[in-house]
């Protein structure tokens, strides 16, 4: 009789525990599913924001510039690594002029060449993306370490210099940039950035007679 009661009690306890276990697992699965939905929504929103930006410009020299800069940086690293060996070998010869010449050549190709290349290519715009909601442009350039640098600006932030400098088409927020009109997806984008859609001012100057009359 006691054994029968123990079996009934154990069966009753198992019957109470199993629904609780199943209920807890269902809650956990529900929480996991809700978390998965939220993460998928956040990822989808980020993807949609990136897709909203329209690429309106691409610089065709971007692959060549990256390849040249990679070669320049790698050659500079090799020159720095080999410079102690070159100096040691040059000192064994005992010629001061030869030592100065070798150090000058190695230093030129190690330091001067990458800097000159960066000064020329830092203004080159590789891509321009446009956000139609905020009317904002995102220009991408390449820095010294081959990393992409992005600049956000609007059409009113652009200044077109009267006398453009070397490799300078416009100045956006004080930064000179170089772009080419033929590589835009549509000419209207180039005209909007450069301010060619604004009305022209044909007033060349003010005459002194007009100044005397107004005074």
From TrEMBL:
GO biological process: mitochondrial proton-transporting ATP synthase complex assembly
One of the record's GO cellular component terms: mitochondrial membrane
Residue intervals passing through the bilayer: 98-120
Name of the gene: LOC113394991
Protein name: Transmembrane protein 70 homolog, mitochondrial
Organism domain of life: Eukaryota
Record's keyword annotation contains DNA-binding: no
Keyword field: Membrane, Transmembrane, Transmembrane helix
InterPro entries reported for this sequence: TMEM70, TMEM70/TMEM186/TMEM223
Pfam families to which the protein is assigned, alphabetical: TMEM70
Family under the similarity heading: Belongs to the TMEM70 family.
Organism: Vanessa tameamea
